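Our preliminary data section would be incomplete without showing what the modeling component actually yields. Below, a chain of 419 amino acids is followed by its predicted structure, encoded as tokens that our downstream tools consume directly.
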Amino acid sequence: MEGRTTNGTEWLGRSVSQFGRLTYQYAGKYILRGVIRRDGSDKFGTNNRYGIFPSISAAWKMSEEDFIKNIEAISFLKIKGGYGVNGNDNIGQYLYTSNMVGSMPYPYGTYSTVKQNSGVRLSSNFSNPDIMWERSKLLEFGVELGMFKNALFVNSEVYKRSSDQMLFYQSLPLSSGLGGQYDDNPSQVINAGLISSKGLDFSVTYKGSFGDFKYSISGNVSTFRYRVEELTNNDALMTAAVLADRVEVSRTTVGDVGGYFYGYQSIGIFQTPEQVAEYNELARQRAKELNPGISESTLASTYYSRANTAPGDLIYKDLDNDGTITQADRAKIGNPWPKATYGLQIMANYKRFDLTIATTGIYKRDVFNASRASTYQFGSYDYSTTTQALTRWTEENHSTTNFRIYGDDPNKNLSNPSS
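Predicted structure:
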């Protein structure tokens, strides 16, 4: 339309793949297949641009054997297995080298002819010339079973997958010198460690008909177990910072799931000044036990949480039992990975009409409600305050579920990730 402009961003990327496949089949019931592929991606530097990924699989169609053909109910039966390696280059472009991005404009010229020119700065992504393909290895075994002329079909697979040289965006401190006025999350892509997962995929389908009416009912369930086996130097890996003050929300450590939610364990809300004073007094008693020579001035400035903590603020659990709340009291507070996923699909067809109903779900997964930091308070800038802000703790409403809203949030109720 006249008078309107549009803008956008264009990204150019190139990849190339070469592969070879060999299949051997004997008597229509024994199958062996091997594949080898070579992939290249311009997301990596010239030293690691290409990766080679082989795979092999085998299958036995048991329903072609005479001792199965004699079982009338079985229409199809196959057991199968395989092992393969895949590559992953799911990262941004040009992260192997330093690059410049647009920045705040700067003025130049005389007072009467002042103009603005766009500035440039280093990208917030710290370059890593040695990043390489992430490798995923999969070992699986399965059974396919069709019964009653394949009216009932069952597919079951067990698998074990491991990924090494994983591609992670690792957060960097602001002291790295990267980031801009509106982009303060510098990071670097690295290859780090080894993860493993194992599980079961199971699906069943039944098809039937009554004259012109045809239908099918399918259900599936998948289980999932995930574990981090190794990390570079076995150090914890920060993987997200979404709240104020660049607070760490999730982390990855050896022996646990990747990217679990990380923060303080909330055990309640302070209701009275006397309760706050009681916790502060216990903190000072504990400080004396741990450091008998502590000075009175240091003791006077010792608090359970913070100096300005007051009724309405969250109570965090002292995990290390030192009497005060510090970063050492943070721990795993949630798991973002579901224990299982499931689905159900119903399809029906009558002449020229058809109907499909599909549902999916997940079982046992935690969700971190980052929006609460904005929607449970007033003056939340570009977010919409919800009615939950009206249930906040006040002198008249001693809520046990919603903390107070006060000034610059002295107890960090909004910016501290907590359960």
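DSSP finds four helices and 21 strands in the chain. The chain has one domain: 18-267+330-391. Preliminary results of this kind motivate Aim 1 of the renewal.
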